[in-house]
Amino acid sequence: MNHPVVERHPILDPEKAAPFPAAAFQILRNTQLRKNVAHATDVIQEKRDRLVAEKADWQELRSAGSALRMHLLENLGHYLEQFEERCTATGGVVHWAKDAAEARAIILEILRQEHATEVIKIKTMTSAEIQLNPAIEAAGMKAFETDLAEIILQLGEDEPSHIVVPALHVNRTQVREIFARRMNRPELTDDPKELTGAARTFLREKFLRVPTAISGANFLVAETGSVVIVESEGNGRMCLTLPRTMITLAGIEKVVPRFQDLEIMLQVLARSATGERMNPYSSLWTGVTPGDGPQRFHVVLLDNGRSDILARGRERQTLKCIRCGACQNTCPVYRQTGGHAYGSVYGGPIGAILTPQLMHLEHAQTLPYASSLCGACYDVCPVKINIPEVLIDLRAKVTDKEREEERRFFDPMYLGMIIANFFFASAARFRFAQKMGRLGLRLFTRKDGWIHYLPSIGARWTMTRDLRGLPDQTFREWWAGRNAGRGKEGR
Amino acid sequence: MRASLFITCYNDTLYPETGQAVVTLLERLGVEVEFRPAQTCCGQMHANTGFRSEAYSQAKRFVRMYQDAETVVIPSSSCVAMIRDQYPGLFEELGNEELRREFASFLPRVYELSEFLVDKLGVEDVGAYFPHRVTYHASCHGLRALHLGERPFKLLANVRGLELVPLENLDRCCGFGGTFSVKNAEVSSAMLSAKLIDVLTTRAEYCTALDNSCLMHIGGALHRQFAAMRTLHMAQILASTEATPMEATL
């Protein structure tokens, strides 16, 4: 029998990832992946649109969510200190990590103190951001993902491709193959009940055995020192209640000021993320309660470039993100490529603005260009992040760096832009360029008046599209001729 | 009423027939059209590719050129979106407060073509005749930046003889995106192939829009495939009458 095999993808590390166009080029050849991505995004988006439509005050909710997140960012220092104070007072230990290396070191140190050999994990994209799993393995320990999608990926030696639905690019048949092979269950069929049953058996054993857990956080509540995680499966709830020791890793922007703010955030998150009125499991925990749940509780607050983003101008709004993934589902680029092309755990439009900034614009510089600026992401964003605006701001920063580099003189796009600007500066120059363009393109124009091939950067257009040849007369020439006769030429 | 036509750099060079149609249409509706020959580009291509200071100098030129105009009409939604959404930021960021004020005072007089017809002139039936099967592509900027909404549909509904076929996934980008179409040519083409499925399913004779940039993209692929359908800017449909029918130029 022929088993479909999930391809092994490189670790999503923006420092090592291929440029977006090259990565996308590879992925566009993967028919199965594209079919899975198109189907899954269609389903989620349809649900999301339906549930948003039933909410008459959706735009007000969005505005409230946006204002709340902006207020948080403008007063982040204050609320973080408040969170630390409350979390500590209720029995938690708060650690501050300025970058990925520091966060990894803090977590490994806690694991060593716990004499941990294994650790279970739930809902933590941030751990992928800091490449935690390879570090845990290198330290001789084992990390087990417990979110159903993450198990599929971990067993399939694959990587997440979506913020909310990490295994969105994998279909049921592929899941069956992975489970059958890695759980040694050749009798499994691709019936969803059987597959989830297999995952349950596999996981229960881990939940009962492993006393140390790492989680992410959807929100941190400054007022109470609480941590919030929302999920659909209940595996998170297991992870949060059974272990002896709990380590929560969270970006510093995850704070909300008051407990009551969750009212808005949970509403916009569930509807935007999975198209549900309320997600099935919302777990909140505060510090340590003797005799109930984890007895040692650590929170690692991760900066890793975030305070840099906070110090920027319009780009600051990037940190409003609550990781709902709605921008991915609606993005016409993401819908073609899926998440891996973005070379980071954060794919899609939000990844295109977040990843380069987390990398201090030293890596992932092709991501701001991985968008047609169609604006669909901004329309669906529940906290009104103007992603196209930030993309353009980041493009300007990439270009400003390029202006300092020698190789710009060999980049046809760069040269074209500089030359075009020279021609746009006066009408006389522009008319000259139009005439030259007409002459030059005549070489490539076929008898039917169309261009089927252009050299250099033009070939990137003509590889799939024709271009109508330039007409013999520009509009301004037509206008001048028409009005010469009438003696009423415009100014 | 006097309207100054900002034709846009690519319509001027590549699609003069669109500009001619705008002139025909507006004059038929009693508008006095002027054309300021010093015009070149609004700066969109530079702004969206990250060449901010270049975009700024073109934006400055645009404002200086048109600030005394009664109204400015632009047959391209993406250029209008550039002016409305990006100029304020450019002027603010590059510190020209005086220019920002001048711009703010004249911005309400800048119209996209369908806005000018429906909002300013109050006309939904422009007296056009175009006996063909047509589908309308709502460009991203027309849809999400300018919120053109029902305007284009009202204008097309009143064209005699025109059979409007709805386009599936109307809100989805065709994949053009300016320099995106060459920087990410493969993904752009993949998006275009998805768009073509919807466009061709309509079995229309013409695919129309208020943006020749999307039409250059869609039309370029239709031509490559020797498809029967052609693309045509909406101005050319609206300019067409029984007396002087406008045919698409191949």
Describe this structure in words.
The complex is a heterodimer of chains A (491) and B (250). Chain A has 491 residues and is an alpha/beta fold. Among the domains of chain A are: 65-307, NagB/RpiA/CoA transferase-like (Rossmann fold, 3-Layer(aba) Sandwich), CATH 3.40.50.10420; 410-486, no CATH class. Chain A is 48% helix and 11% strand. In chain A, the strands form three sheets. Chain A has a six-stranded parallel beta sheet with strand order 1-10-7-4-2-3, sandwiched between helices. Chain A has a four-stranded mixed beta sheet with strand order 8-5-6-9. In chain A, a hairpin with a 4-residue loop joins β5 and β6 (226-231). Chain A is elongated and about 95 Å long. Mean pLDDT of chain A is 94; it is low at 1-9. The two termini of chain B are 33 Å apart. Chain B is an alpha/beta fold. The radius of gyration of chain B is 18 Å and the shape is globular. Chain B folds into two domains: 2-120, Rossmann fold (3-Layer(aba) Sandwich), CATH 3.40.50; 133-239, Rossmann fold. In chain B, the strands form two sheets. Chain B has a four-stranded parallel beta sheet with strand order 2-1-3-4, with helices on both faces. A four-stranded parallel beta sheet of chain B has the order 6-5-7-8, with helices on both faces. The chains are: A alpha/beta (491), B alpha/beta (250). At the A-B interface, α1, α15, α17, α18 and α19 of A face α1, α2, α3, α4 and α5 of B.
Low-confidence segments of chain A, ≥5 residues, pLDDT <50?
1-9
Tell how many strands the DSSP assignment of chain B holds. 8
CATH architecture of the largest domain in chain B: 3-Layer(aba) Sandwich
Strand numbers in spatial order across the main sheet of chain A: 1-10-7-4-2-3
Count of runs of 4 or more consecutive helical residues of chain B: 13
Report the helical percentage of chain B.
Answer: 40-55%
Content-based structural category of chain B: alpha/beta
Spatial extent as radius of gyration of chain A: 26 Å
Q: Which fold name is given in CATH as the topology of the largest domain in chain B?
A: Rossmann fold
Largest sheet, strands/sense/barrel of chain B: 4 strands, parallel
Radius of gyration of chain B: 18 Å
